[in-house]
Write a structure and sequence with these properties.
Belongs to the MdcC family. The protein is about 30% helix and about 35% strand. The chain is of the alpha+beta class and about 100 residues long. It is globular and about 30 Å long.
């Protein structure tokens, strides 16, 4: 298992927590807890070796479409495709934004 951590500037402030996906399904899960900082901290546990550049590129792409929220994100990846990963990440952001 590979452990990857990133920090990205965040300009949106939300409140609450959210969970999307289930790692036991052979997919991935994303947990997000908003906070009042100005950074999005991301911790990824992945079954795919050398996936750091893929994760970094995914978050850079997501941030190019809108502001990232501040908080702590934990991702448990079991080889999900980038498309599924993006859906799960956007699901937790949307759930917290609607809370």
């Amino acid at each position: 298992m590979q452990q990857i951590t990133f920090s990205f500037p965040a300009t949106r402030h939300l409140s609450g927590k959210a969970l999307a996906g289930v790692v036991g399904s052979g997919d991935m899960e994303v947990l997000f807890a908003a906070d009042s900082s100005s950074v999005l901290h991301v911790a990824v546990t992945s079954s795919v070796d050398n996936s750091g550049p893929r994760w970094k590129a995914l978050f850079e792409r997501i941030s190019s479409f809108g502001a990232l929220p501040a908080g702590q994100m934990t991702i448990h990846d079991f080889g999900a495709t980038p498309g599924v990963a993006r859906i799960r990440i956007e699901q937790v952001f949307e759930e917290v934004a609607d809370a």
